[in-house]
Design a protein that fits this description.
Layout (H helix, E strand, L loop, with lengths): L24 H29 L7 H26 L13 H10 L2 H12 L5 E8 L4 E8 L10 E7 L6 H4 L3 H13 L3 H12 L5 H6 L3
């Protein structure tokens, strides 16, 4: 479910992928539990903030401020995992050269292959975080960038289209911790991208009908 019930977020079970190529069920199951942990922690932090601000708990201003700082990490951890899981599905081919999506990649990067290489190269860098492909709303252009942890490096106002998790928990169980394992995971990730969902996200963003978390909700 997507709705907030009684002030709480809920994990979106309909986004949980199955039978992926090169990403084991055990890996997905463990990764999904981490996502559920972010949902739980967002709810805990929001509850603590509401109680503290209403005077229900004797929390210092410093402690409240630290909760507010932490909320960005937990909330983005929740939302980015929803983008990630929501665009994984088995057996879907990459966009054909004449497809609308491929033509958009070509417009912004020369070719789809150019975009894919640049996106993948970002993911092969050392560090934990996310590779993002997002639309610059001022020009309608696709831009790749890196997000550290979950919350550092987001470009304000840009609309996420693709989010690739590059924390070790996304791949280490299947591919190990070495650089070649990281590269193999990226290959597996691309084999499982749901290009129909990505094209829908792009179309909605072009029409100005998309907001970050609503991007997942509207397609769930």
């Amino acid at each position: 479910m997507n709705a907030i019930a009684e002030g709480n977020y809920t994990a979106k079970l309909d986004l949980k992928p199955e039978r992926l190529e090169g990403l084991s069920e055990k890996l997905i199951e463990q990764h999904w539990k981490l996502y559920e942990g972010y949902v739980d922690n967002v709810n805990l932090l929001r509850s603590a903030l509401e109680d503290g601000l209403r005077g229900g708990k004797a929390l210092s201003d410093q402690f409240l401020s630290e909760i507010e700082r932490r909320l960005g990490f937990e909330y983005n951890g929740m939302v980015l995992h929803e983008y990630y899981f929501g665009a994984l599905a088995p057996g879907l081919a990459e966009p054909g050269k004449s497809s609308k999506l491929a033509l958009r990649f070509a417009k912004d990067f020369g070719t789809y292959e150019n975009w894919k290489k640049r996106f993948s190269d970002i993911g092969k860098m050392r560090g934990v975080g996310w590779v993002m492909a997002a639309i610059d709303p001022s020009f309608g252009k696709l831009v790749n960038f890196w997000v550290s942890d979950h919350e550092v490096g987001h470009v304000a106002g840009f609309i996420p289209i693709i989010a690739m998790d590059m924390w070790e928990h996304a791949y280490i169980l299947d591919y190990g911790a070495k650089a070649d394992g990281r590269a193999a995971y990226i290959e597996a990730y691309f084999k499982n991208l749901d290009w129909r969902t990505i094209e829908d996200r792009w179309a909605l963003a072009d029409q100005g009908k998309i907001r970050p978390r609503a991007a997942v909700a509207s397609l769930a």
